[in-house]
Amino acid sequence: MATSQITPFVVPHLLYPNHDIAIVDEPDSIAFLTGQYTMFKPLPQVSSPMFEVREAENKGLGMYAARDIDKGDLIISERPVYTYRLSLENVVRHSGEGKSFEIEAVENLSPNSRQRLYELKNSLPESCQKDKLEGILNTNFFPFHLKSGCGTHHLDHTHAGCFPSLSRANHDCCPNTNFFFSVPTFTGQFRAMRKIPKGEEITVSYIPLDDPKQMRQRALQDRYHFTCTCATCSASSEASDMRRSELSALMEKIMAFEKGNFSLHSVLTSAVMDRGLQLATEERLHRIHAEILNTAVKCLFANNRPEYMIIQKGGPAQHEWRTLEGDESLVLQDLQV
After folding, report:
1. Bridge partner residues of 157 (DSSP)
2. Total domains in the fold of the chain
3. Which domain holds residue 235?
4. Do 20 and 158 lie in a common domain?
5. Measuring CA to CA, how many Å separate 248 from each of 71, 101, 199, 209?
6. How many other CB atoms are found less than 10 A from the CB of residue 218?
7. pLDDT for res 12
8. What is the pLDDT of residue 37?
């Protein structure tokens, strides 16, 4: 089917009366979703309330640790109330009756879910939005990847989801929390990337962090219309900018390698990867550290390095990805093969 002929489809919440989810996607994908994803499976539970939502200085509301949180702890697991496939964003924006698909989908939610959605922050200027809902959705979406199935019946799409609680987390250029989408339970999850003491704000990253301060500030201003005043930006130094610029150049090569340019394994030597790990450690970028470790293991395989070298990197890589994403992590599963 030609791209211009794709017609998005809204799944009303009545299909999931206990979970209240609206999904915008093609009919075939919707059928696959309803057959493959266990949306009726109970949510992963935390032992006790991990966070509270309250005022964050100069940032509106934010999430704060309600108790001491250990590294790797699951802070929250939540299904999106609204999600859509990103490739449909600029294809068809309206239904046959002229309503935007955003409005049509949200109208199908329960009154409680609609209220929680409309209570989220809208950071878009009025001149940049058709209506309040568009501003709220664009401010609060988390992107995630759906990949499952085989043969002609499979999914390999990037979606964006809006979560009533997860979307309360504010940005930080050295975040303490990682966002992960669990495919088996169709939930967004926060896991602590380090110990978070009671009372500390729970933060995530809205943008790639391997850029110097000026580029990060521009990206946040262009996309979310605010100026970051986190501790990293406030104390930003030339040395930090140089480290992140060097990291950015390395991550470009890593991304190319991960997308299939395997000839780069000869460039991504152990010394180069160790330098990247050092930079990520100095900048306290936990997820980037894990991403470099994962690629380092693959490069060691590609370069036919001794088994002991692979184990030296593979063990820590498994530990870090389990911390970031739990046992459902696809990266972790690949590392264990």
Report:
1. 146
2. 2
3. 231-335
4. yes
5. 26, 37, 32, 8
6. 12
7. 39
8. 56
